[in-house]
Design goal:
Blueprint (H helix, E strand, L loop, with lengths): L4 H35 L4 H31 L3 H26 L6 H23 L6 H19 L5 H27 L2
Amino acid sequence: MKQKKGSETVKEFRKSFWAGIITFILVFPLAILEFYRVRQGLSTNITILAFFANLLYLGTYYLFIKGYILLGEKTKNTLLSKTSYGLLLIEALTVLYTLIILFLPQAEKELFVTVELAIVGIGLVIFGIALQRVKNLGSLAKVGGIFQILAGISYFLTPAMQLFSFISLFLFMINSVLELVILHVAGKKIK
């Protein structure tokens, strides 16, 4: 018996939702590993663990962001779909850079991190604008979009003022929850 297209969409949103939860959880051990890498370096075994954890993170992020690509397609919001692809590309390049500096610490450049934060910030602002255009989710999409825009601005300003790194972390937590709720609701409302 062939499944209906609507139930496939629900499954895709559900898969993205669960991938988003895993992605969110993975951020914390990866941040701890990065902290120790910068402060004192990592042993070979921990470096290998960090390598595979980063690959796992990228895989789950891909599955997560596919939910937003699908949301953009289903709501005919090309800006959301394109921005989601852009964020995926930025994340892939960031993970690639992280993997390189795990094994070649001398390749680390502060300028790259500054440029990365600026690009991510711009991407999040555009993503937030696109999210606000999703009519099917009402005020949830509006609130999610506003927080994405605020996070984008704080990422963009982080290199200039350290205070914004704490604001970015706080907004990351709020955005992560909102992004998951949006995918969960989209899975129920959008077929």
